[in-house]
Design goal:
The protein is mainly β. It folds into two domains: about 35-125, no CATH class; about 145-505, Beta Barrel (Maltoporin, Chain A), CATH 2.40.170. It has helices at about 5-35, 70; strands at about 140, 145-160, 165-180, 185-200, 210-220, 225-235, 250, 255-270, 270-285, 285-290, 295, 300-315, 320-330, 345-355, 360-375, 385-395, 400-410, 420-435, 440-450, 460-470, 475-490, 490-505. It has an 18-stranded antiparallel barrel. A hairpin with a 6-residue loop joins strand 19 and strand 20. The termini are far apart. The relative contact order is 0.08. InterPro entries: Autotransporte_beta_dom_sf, BBP2_2. It holds the Pfam family BBP2_2. Keywords: Signal. This is Outer membrane beta-barrel protein.
């Protein structure tokens, strides 16, 4: 018979409690181990998966982070050393620790390293946008980037006029370039192109060189005030069917145009105001007649100054209606031209329209109004006309761009007793990316000349097509064909041009 004393019963209870304690510890330890992250901390810009709720905003895409509810189930919340900075918690140095959630960290070398070898354009941080591939072309010039190109082509031109046919073959060299700044504030953009021709055969037809360069300096004066200082130069040669062209000339007069301007744009809440001042200078070269003589055109040289004010109201960021008034004066170098007429003039204009911006799909503006030009010579009739002006860029789908333009101007005449005419121009261009390295182009345009003297109106039609094949990053193969026709106003002429060339770009 076994007699159990009080001390023996106490020792037996202690043994039972210790046994239960070890049994519970054996069951709890595997659960704690399952909540620990198998990924070791890494130095660098990539954050570590720590298993805390705070780290979920900086985790690697595709990784899984334990929630706070899961962690609390392990009993880690009761860590008495969570406020001790010397205790290892598995967090990244510099990152804040989430209050009450400090799981221990263990490194398991047997687990796979879950990270792609080439992350590509994936963001390195949840708050950073994906990196876009850079364009390798261009020449860095300090804080500017220059993108030049040179095209050399072999062309042919066939002209039919008044029942006669002439043809010339020529070489054309086109140089183009864009210079843009990379400043933290303000910006400067310079664009230029020039085409030089050299006849191979059919030298009786005049060569038609062209040049155009424009510069735009944008000044960020304040948060809601922007100023633009512009300047430009353009050289063209008048067409044989131009109303001011010299009949029977082998080389028509060349036109040198210089432009400059200053504009200031200011936002007053939803109201937008613009004030602009433009200067222009036109200088004409001599025309060469078929008998070899030279005819001076200096009586046509003139200088113009124009000012305009525009006021718009923002109905929405995509729709801004506006009203605009403008006035200008044209000064001719000579008081009277070769026919004895004083052609200096004063112009007035009023317009209304709307600016629209629907993002990358469609943006531009369109407006209509009235313009009136009064000449200094009382014998010259004033010219007044309804005007239409606008431009639009439309992208119906990726890789396809459509450009539309509408412009109305009043041109001065050189014919004795005639003041001038109203010219309406409509242009359109389509570019479609057929493949990554093949672009197709379509162009078209129409010009209507409305003469105030009652002469028959003249219409000019232009249509063209072209292909550009990118052989590699720096070399393109181009092919173009164009048809041009002038009807009315005493003109009946058609021109067909075609050429193929190579473009070297950088």
């Amino acid at each position: 018979m076994k007699i159990t004393t009080s001390k023996g019963r106490t020792r037996e209870r202690r043994r039972t409690a210790v046994g239960l304690l070890f049994a519970c510890s054996a069951l709890v330890s595997p659960a704690i181990a399952q909540t620990q992250s198998p990924f070791p901390p890494r130095e660098g810009s990539l954050p570590t998966v720590t298993g805390t709720a705070a780290a979920s905003s900086a985790t690697v895409p595709g990784s899984t982070v334990a929630t706070q509810t899961d962690i609390n189930a392990t009993g880690v919340v009761g860590d008495p050393n969570r406020n001790d900075p010397n205790v290892t918690t598995g967090t990244i140095p510099g990152n804040s620790r989430t209050a009450g959630i400090d799981p221990p960290y263990e490194e398991d070398l047997n687990q796979p390293y879950d990270q792609t070898l080439d992350p590509g354009s994936e963001p390195i941080d949840a708050q950073e946008q994906p990196r876009e591939p850079g364009d390798p072309t261009g020449i860095r010039l300090g804080s500017f980037l220059l993108r030049p190109s040179v095209n050399q082509s072999v062309d042919t031109e066939i002209t039919r006029s008044s029942g006669t046919k002439t043809q010339r073959d020529y070489l054309a060299t086109a140089i183009r370039g864009t210079l843009s700044s990379d400043w933290s504030r303000h910006s400067l953009t310079v664009t230029g192109e020039g085409t030089f021709e050299r006849n191979i055969s059919g030298g009786d037809r005049g060569e038609r060189p062209e040049a155009n360069i424009n510069a735009d300096l944008r000044l960020d004066l304040a948060d809601d005030t922007v100023a633009h200082v512009t300047g430009g130069y353009r050289f063209t040669r008048e067409d044989d069917y131009d109303p001011n062209a010299i009949g029977g000339a082998t080389t028509q007069s060349g036109v040198n145009e210089f432009t400059g301007g200053l504009s200031v744009e200011r936002d007053f809440g939803k109201v937008r105001g613009t004030a602009a001042l433009d200067l222009s200078r036109a200088s004409y070269t001599d025309a060469k007649l078929s008998d070899g003589t030279v005819l001076s055109m200096k009586d046509r040289n003139n200088t113009g100054i124009d000012g305009r004010l525009r006021l718009g109201y923002e109905l929405s960021p995509a729709l801004i209606p506006y009203v605009e008034v403008a006035t200008g004066h044209t000064f001719y170098d000579r008081k009277r031209d070769n026919s004895g007429y004083a052609r200096s003039s004063q112009s007035y204009a009023a317009r209304t329209g709307v600016e629209f911006d629907l993002g990358e799909k469609l943006r531009g503006e369109i407006g209509t109004g009235y313009e009136f030009v009064d000449y200094e010579d009382s014998r010259l009739k004033s010219v007044g006309a309804v005007t239409f002006n606008g431009n639009a860029t439309w992208s119906p789908q990726r890789g396809t761009n459509v450009n539309l333009g509408l412009r109305t101007t009043v041109q001065d005449s050189t014919t004795a007793g005639e003041s001038g005419w109203v010219e309406y121009q409509l242009t359109a261009g389509l570019a479609h990316e057929m493949r990554d390295n093949l672009i197709a182009r379509l162009t078209g345009g129409s010009t209507l000349r409305d003469f105030s003297s009652g002469n028959s109106d003249e219409t000019v039609w232009v249509a063209g097509a072209g292909l550009t094949w990118a052989i590699n990053r720096y070399l393109d193969l181009t092919g173009d064909v164009e048809y041009e026709r002038a009807d009315g106003g005493g003109s009946d002429e058609s021109i067909v041009r075609a050429g193929v060339g190579l473009t070297l770009k950088r």
